[in-house]
């Protein structure tokens, strides 16, 4: 018998927030307490995450994150999938979700639910059907528990208590044992000895905590070597001692996303047209909107060139989408967002950069057109090099590549005759488009 236990949310995704609590922290604690209880009763356990990170280490990619949870259950050949969540929305009580009624999942849900109701003294909100990816895509029976409401003071007061979270873990364990026809055995101590964890801290910010020191060291090295961070440490939670430190070469520089631009429209145009003589003239939109947002817009042009292949669109995003930054194109053939005009697409691209680079609100009068603006961890990437693994996954050297393209554009020399030639070429493109000449 094998169960895949999935602590809801994690990493970039905090889940529900309320009363000073984050769902991702509560679900992880309950599941770490649940695992040894099930193992004591002879049930093997797969945890989709054992620290504060998104399974598969996806960043701002919910589809990839959820897919990694499903893959953990499938590859581990689990007999049952159990997602553990906390509800939000101002209600109270406990419920269990399934993809449909009449199957093994509903049986499991009805085994677990009474224990949860009893331990919390909560209202019984019942077993409900809901089209959730981890319930829909798993081949084994799958349930998802919603344990109280994080934004309701009475529920949150219980969830804050470690002893109550231990009781929640026991309630889950009893229901799961009932499902498998096992008589639940109480461990000698239901208060597990606190185990050591290892924090992965990159550029001064904790990104995850793992139970294995070796795994934590691997994550730090991977992040630094791929350019996602300039330095990192592994810190032991029991005494806050740094057991491992690792840094990139001291001469590695950072390139801010925000700031004044020195490159010219003409340099960007000339570079782009040299590589695609039929490229539409969207550079002025970058300058206009980039200056309003305070972004070094020339680097955004370089990123657009990288994302679109000099506006040739050789990937899944197509020209008529006006999606110059690949916003929402998260892999597996997903084409991402579409925008009504070229300027709107440019503005969305710049707004997405703004969201990553700063915690400031958009300037007054600027309409938010980026559909993923609020999904970004605001201010997490003030420099281009920090977009590695965030804007693009895995994204090794992504930011450095944008900086390299910018450097090539900045080398363009514009003379009066060259500028006239560029304008003539642009005029010819427009003429061909409208008059078919």
TrEMBL record:
Give a GO biological-process term: peptidoglycan catabolic process
Q: Which Gene3D superfamilies match?
A: Zn-dependent exopeptidases
MurNAc-LAA domain residues: 70-177
Q: Could you tell me one molecular function GO term of this UniProt entry?
A: N-acetylmuramoyl-L-alanine amidase activity
Signal sequence, renumbered to the chain: none
Is this entry keyworded Hydrolase? yes
- Transmembrane region positions? none
One Pfam family per UniProt: Amidase_3
Respond yes or no to whether keyword Hydrolase is given for this record.
yes
Question: Mind listing the UniProt keywords for this protein, alphabetically?
Answer: Hydrolase
Q: Name one GO cellular component term.
A: outer membrane-bounded periplasmic space
**What is the name of the protein in this document?**
N-acetylmuramoyl-L-alanine amidase
Source organism per entry reads Desulfosporosinus lacus DSM 15449
């Amino acid at each position: 018998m094998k169960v895949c236990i999935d602590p809801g949310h994690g990493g970039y995704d905090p889940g529900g927030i309320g009363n000073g609590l984050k769902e991702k922290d509560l679900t992880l604690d309950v599941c770490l307490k649940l695992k040894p209880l099930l193992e004591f009763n002879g049930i093997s356990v797969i945890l989709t995450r054992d620290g504060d990170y998104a399974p598969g280490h996806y960043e701002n990619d919910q589809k990839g994150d959820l897919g990694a949870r499903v893959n953990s259950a499938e590859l581990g050949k689990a007999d049952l999938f159990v997602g553990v969540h906390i509800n939000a929305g101002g209600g109270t009580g406990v419920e269990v979700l399934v993809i449909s009624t009449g199957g093994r999942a509903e049986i499991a849900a009805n085994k677990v639910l009474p224990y949860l109701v009893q331990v919390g003294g909560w209202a019984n909100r019942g077993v409900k059907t809901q089209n959730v990816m981890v319930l829909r895509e798993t081949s084994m029976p799958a349930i998802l528990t919603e344990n109280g409401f994080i934004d309701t003071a009475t529920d949150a007061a219980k969830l804050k208590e470690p002893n109550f979270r231990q009781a929640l873990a026991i309630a889950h364990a009893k229901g799961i044992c009932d499902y498998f026809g096992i008589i639940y055995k109480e461990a000698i101590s239901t208060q597990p000895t606190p185990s050591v964890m290892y924090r992965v801290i990159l550029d001064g910010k904790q990104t995850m905590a793992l139970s294995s020191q070796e795994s934590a060291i691997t994550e730090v090295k991977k992040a630094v070597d791929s350019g996602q961070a300039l330095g990192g440490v592994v810190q032991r939670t029991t005494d806050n001692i740094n057991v491992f430190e690792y840094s990139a070469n001291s001469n590695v520089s950072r390139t801010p996303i925000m700031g004044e631009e020195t490159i010219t429209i003409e340099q960007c145009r000339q570079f782009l047209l040299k590589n695609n003589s039929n490229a539409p003239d969207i550079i002025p939109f970058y300058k206009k909107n980039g200056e309003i947002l305070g972004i070094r817009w020339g680097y955004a042009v370089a990123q657009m060139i990288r994302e679109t292949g000099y506006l040739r669109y050789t990937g899944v995003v197509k020209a008529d989408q006006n999606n110059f930054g690949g916003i929402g194109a998260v892999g597996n053939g997903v084409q991402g967002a579409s925008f009504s005009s070229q300027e709107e697409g440019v503005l969305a691209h710049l707004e997405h950069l703004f969201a990553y680079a700063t915690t400031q609100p958009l300037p007054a009068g600027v309409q938010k057109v980026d559909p993923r603006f609020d999904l970004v961890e605001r201010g997490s990437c003030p420099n281009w090099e920090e977009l590695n693994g965030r804007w693009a996954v895995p994204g090794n050297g992504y930011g450095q590549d944008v900086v390299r393209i910018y450097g090539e554009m900045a080398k363009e020399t514009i003379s009066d005759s060259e500028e006239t030639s560029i304008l003539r070429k642009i005029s010819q493109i427009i003429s061909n488009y409208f008059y078919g000449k």
